[in-house]
From TrEMBL, chain A:
One record GO biological process: vacuolar proton-transporting V-type ATPase complex assembly
PANTHER family (alphabetical): COILED-COIL DOMAIN-CONTAINING PROTEIN 115
InterPro entries linked to this entry: Vma22/CCDC115
Native organism: Rhamnusium bicolor
Family annotation (Pfam families): Vma22_CCDC115
Protein's name according to its UniProt entry: Vacuolar ATPase assembly protein VMA22
GO MF terms, alphabetically ordered: unfolded protein binding
Automatic annotation (TrEMBL), chain B:
Organism for this UniProt entry: Rhamnusium bicolor
Subunit organization: V-ATPase is a heteromultimeric enzyme made up of two complexes: the ATP-hydrolytic V1 complex and the proton translocation V0 complex. The V1 complex consists of three catalytic AB heterodimers that form a heterohexamer, three peripheral stalks each consisting of EG heterodimers, one central rotor including subunits D and F, and the regulatory subunits C and H. The proton translocation complex V0 consists of the proton transport subunit a, a ring of proteolipid subunits c9c'', rotary subunit d, subunits e and f, and the accessory subunits VhaAC45 and ATP6AP2.
Transmembrane segments: none
Molecular-function annotations in GO: proton-transporting ATPase activity, rotational mechanism
Pfam name, any one: ATP-synt_F
Family: Belongs to the V-ATPase F subunit family.
Coiled coil: none
Protein name: V-type proton ATPase subunit F
PANTHER family: V-TYPE PROTON ATPASE SUBUNIT F, VACUOLAR ATP SYNTHASE SUBUNIT F
Length: 164, 123
């Protein structure tokens, strides 16, 4: 009987801690997404300026590669590593491949022409910043998901102990 | 750096409107693999819901994509498909778009987290 009460206490304490963690992770996630939004807005306004200089159709999805384009590798990739904070799930880190390391990598600014306005380079930097924030948001999101799963498991355990 | 050459980098895919896709592809996430499959989809007003759903499901199945960035307004259109995706990989991140600022109340993961604080479930 005393053992059951002790178990219940332990479960409740852990539940409290995890619930507080979940709340702060939710806040962190929202802040990171707002950072992504700000970086994207900055990038989009530079894209708009570049479009104003180069013409409506020069900075649009017409410049993007399609299925008929030659194959090429991504410049920005994510590398996963195991993280104890995430209860064993992976955490990600963004890496930008340098041109000299991999021949099949091309700078995307080239798709828009050889002499492009500086705005396009500024836009590229802003979107790369947005990518960094996005990868951080993914890590926080994974942590939040795992915390929610743990909370649900503990609630089930608590219900089982209370039913005895 | 030596550690990363042993581990293969995974891709970030994008499902978004024109500006979102142009922007992130400018950032360098785009790739066309040897099967001629892109890792992005530009969604405009003429894109069918089924096309968005099929693309999302294809990206989920690919093992070289670990993160899917999707505009929140497009995520609303295929909400039922996203809510059914429970595995942590690939991670689905809902991002705002130029015309639709971020709305935390529509975010899938935050809605699920908020549901935990339902008074009926708080024992």
């Amino acid at each position: 009987m005393a053992e059951a009460t002790e178990d219940l206490d332990k479960i409740c304490n852990t539940l409290d801690k995890l619930t507080l963690d979940a709340l702060s992770l939710m806040e962190e996630e929202i802040l990171l997404k707002l950072n992504v939004e700000n970086a994207m807005c900055g990038g989009e306004s530079h894209l708009a300026k570049a479009r104003y200089i180069m013409g409506q159709n020069s900075v649009s999805c017409l410049q993007l590669p399609t299925e008929n384009s030659p194959e090429f590798s991504a410049v920005a990739k994510v590398y996963a590593s195991e993280d104890d904070k995430l209860f064993g799930e992976k955490s990600y880190e963004l890496q930008l491949t340098k041109k000299t390391e991999d021949e099949s990598v091309q700078d995307p600014v080239r798709w828009f022409g050889v002499l492009v306005p500086q705005n396009l380079n500024y836009a590229q930097n802003m979107f790369r910043q947005a990518l960094q924030w996005a990868v951080q948001a993914v890590n926080v999101q994974t942590q939040l998901e795992q915390t929610i799963i743990k909370i649900q498991q503990l609630k089930a355990a608590k219900a089982a102990v209370t039913a005895k | 750096m030596a550690l990363h050459s042993a581990v293969k980098g995974k891709l970030i895919s994008v499902i978004g409107d024109e500006d979102t896709c142009v922007g992130f592809l400018l950032g360098g996430v785009g790739e066309i693999n040897k099967n001629r499959h892109p890792n992005f989809l530009v969604v405009d007003k003429n894109t069918a819901v089924s096309e968005i759903e099929d693309c999302f499901k294809r990206f989920i199945k690919r093992d070289d994509i670990d993160i899917i960035l999707i505009n929140q307004n497009i995520a609303e259109i295929i909400r039922h498909v996203i809510d059914n995706h429970n595995s942590p990989i690939p991670a689905v991140l809902e991002i705002p778009s130029k015309d639709h600022p971020y709305d935390a109340s529509k975010d899938s993961i935050l809605r699920r987290a908020k549901g935990m604080f339902n008074p009926d479930e708080l024992l």
